[in-house]
Amino acid sequence: MQTRGTDLKVGLCLDVLDLFMSKAFANREKDREFNMALLKHGFVTLPQAVDTVARMPIDDKSKREMRARIRRWARMLRERGFDVPDA
């Protein structure tokens, strides 16, 4: 592993889906547009995101709310004329 110019520190990057999910859970206004852009441009798909909710270590109520939130974002994009496939 090359560490030149990093003071021997290694930076780790989140997978885009992990980033999406953490922002979806946080449910901040600033994160909504970011996540909608990830959906709009296909970096994250609706089925991928909705399926991932089941594996998150959160309670069932939070899972239901997250799935609804993600589906709502996809619906909002469709209403704006973007193609966000269900599957």
Task: Give descriptors for this structure.
0% strand; 4 helices; mainly alpha; 87 residues; single chain
Commentary on this structure:
This protein is mainly alpha-helical. It has one domain (16-79). The chain has helices at 16-26, 29-40, 46-53, 60-79. Helix 1 packs antiparallel against helix 2 and helix 3 (46-53) runs antiparallel to helix 4 (60-79). The chain starts with 15 loop residues before the first helix and ends in an 8-residue tail after the last helix. The model has no long low-confidence stretch (mean pLDDT 92).
Mean pLDDT over the residues: 92
How many strands appear in the DSSP assignment? 0
Q: Give the percentage of residues in beta strands.
A: under 5%
Percent of residues in helices:
55-70%
Backbone CA Rg: 15 Å
Shape annotation: globular
DSSP helical segment count: 4
Query: What is the ordering of alpha helices and beta strands?
Result: HHHH
Residue windows where pLDDT falls under 50 for at least 5 positions: none
SS content category: mainly alpha
- Note the main sheet: none
The total domain count is: 1
| Alpha carbon gap, first and last residue | 39 Å
